[in-house]
Amino acid sequence: MATLSSNNEENLKESQHNTDVNEEPRDPSIDTLLPQDVLCDSCMDSPSKALKSCLTCLVSYCEAHLRPHLENTKFQNHRLVDPLHDIDCRTCEVHQLPLERFCLMDGCCVCLDCENQEHEGHMTASVGEARTQIEAKLQKKQEEISQSASAAEKAIGKLQSNNDLIKSSVQEVCVIIEQQFARLQTAVEEARKGAAEVLEGEQRQALKQAEGIQAHLEQRRTELMKTLAHMNKLSRSKSDVDFLQEYSEWKKGMADVCLPTVYINRMDHLTSYVQVVTDATQELCDLILSSYREKLNLIWKSGTKSPMSESQASPLPVPETREDFLKYTRSLTFDPDTTHHFLRVMENNRKLTNTSPWQHSYPEHPSRFEYWRQAMTSDSLYLGRHYIEAELSGEGAHVGLTYKSIDRKGEQSTSCISGNDFSWCVGRNSRGFFAWHAGVEVPLEVTDITRVGLYVDFHQSSVSFYDVTGPMRLLHKYTADFIEPLYVTAWLSKKDNVVSLVDAK
User: Residues annotated as region Disordered (predicted)?
Assistant: First the structure.
């Protein structure tokens, strides 16, 4: 308090000295004001240059309005300093001094007392110099971000053009494929006609054979009827001599009355045609389906490989310690539009809780999971390296990575992050702690895990899970060709399960 009083006395003497030098008090408004001058906050009619700023009142005063602070003992505890711009924003809360310096090490504005005490030995600069340096860095960063945004915009344009090209190319290929299948259908139709012609030939031949035999039998029947009529005539002869003579004559020219054995073709061999056509059809169908499936799948697999799989390995060293992994930390949050109705999002969308049987009245959304109690993050992971840590609580808490294209509405196991070939996850159930991929579970010999680390390396095409509850150790690692960006996804199968995305740093 004595120091403050003495400061005010010195300010009073200085002011009186200035008054004594000028025999007549000057009009402050006569002074030429410069852009950098601080104006008096108490002058209402015309602006005047401030002589001092009060750190207690947070107001600047000209010579005339400063007098109460210099002469009235009620203001003796007020701190007067040289005029300051934005005085209300530049006062140290601890020392009540202007924030004139900037600590480059801690990144905060400090006063002279702070610089000499709490920040002693730190690299500091005046706020003006610090601003100049930071603005230069910001400008450079702004240019980098602008270039990245421009590159992203161009990439999006290329992707859109590529999408149109994909659609048109697929349509062209579909036309060719339709032509080839039409050829196949034509060949099948020709084979059908050929088989029908063979059967028609069989039918014609059999019918002609039957027709010829029938004509012969009809001819023989006519001859036999004539013979029968002549025999009836002989039996009506009254004279024994005439009967015997006519019989002797008839017997000499009597034809053979025996009929030939009649061959009735039942065409039992037609079943052979059925067997041959059935076997050949089955063989061709199997060949067509297997040939198309195998060859098309080979092309599809070679065409859908990740572009990173053929690129060179990352020149960066493989992370080993937790500090190494933290360099690739990503801060993610759950997307409320994907959250299942039995899940609740809390703590700035970083914590997910299963509230079964209580449902939440979320609006309908095409991205929302309807059957599996899952939620997906808003941001994706793509290219490079990424590290995320999550805390798990309860039997049924799972966390992993999947594609955005995962089915949100289906009840099949492929709609869950544990049941398809484009998801990788770890979690706990009543039997222990497991890793899952494509419906295959791998038991992990661990207990009491509460926090896991997820590490994705697109260069190495790998997903790794770590136990970070205690000393960091690898739980399981998968290798895959990623064809889409990855999203961190949580699956909470039971009540009170919790998954939290934590700030690893």
Answer: 1-29
Residues 468 and 330 in one domain: yes
Domain that holds residue 469: 322-502
Give the SS3 label for residue 492.
Answer: strand
Q: Are residues 493 and 350 in the same domain?
A: yes
Q: Does the bond joining 47 to the residue before it have cis omega, within 30 degrees of 0? A: no
**Which helix (H) or strand (E) covers residue 137, if one does?**
helix 127-235
- Looking at residue 307, its pLDDT comes to 52
Instruction: Identify whether residues 35 and 149 lie together within a single domain.
Output: no
Last residue of a domain, one of 267, 298, 314: 267
pLDDT at 26: 46
Give the C-alpha separation, 290 to 278, whole Å. Answer: 18
Q: Are residues 77 and 182 in the same domain?
A: no
pTM of this structure: 0.56
105: left (phi over 0), alpha (psi -120 to 50) or beta: alpha
- The maximal CA–CA distance of the chain, rounded, in angstroms, is 199
| Exposed e or buried b per residue across 208-235, where buried means at least 16 C-beta atoms within 10 angstroms of its C-beta | eeeeeeeeeeeebeeeeeeeeeeeeeee
8 Å CB contact between 15 and 45: no
Low-confidence ranges of the chain (pLDDT < 50): 1-8, 11-30, 309-312
Q: What is the DSSP letter of 457?
A: E
* pLDDT value at residue 215: 87
Number of domains composing the chain: 3
Run of H or E including 487: strand 486-492
304 belongs to a structural domain: no
Q: Are residues 145 and 66 in the same domain?
A: no
Q: Is the CB of residue 402 less than 8 Å from the CB of residue 422?
A: yes
Does residue 377 belong to any structural domain of this protein?
Answer: yes
In a domain, 99, yes or no: no
Residues 256 and 357 in one domain: no
| CA 188 to chain CA mean position, Å | 44
Cα 468 to chain centroid, rounded: 26
Burial class (CB in 10 A: 0-12, 13-18, 19+), 119: buried
CATH at 7: 4.10.830
Are residue 337 and residue 226 in the same domain, yes or no? no
Would you call 66 exposed, middle or buried from its count of C-beta atoms within 10 A (0-12, 13-18, 19+)?
A: buried
Using DSSP, state whether 392 is helix, strand or coil. Answer: strand
58, part of any domain: yes
Residue 148 CB-density burial (10 A; 0-12 exposed, 13-18 middle, 19+ buried): exposed
Where does residue 473 rank: exposed (0-12), middle (13-18), buried (19+ CB within 10 A)? exposed
Helix runs in 51-111, H state only: 63-71
Check: CB of residue 113 under 8 Å from CB of residue 95.
yes
> Which of 69, 91, 113 is where one domain is finished?
91
Q: Domain check: are 32 and 160 in the same one? A: no
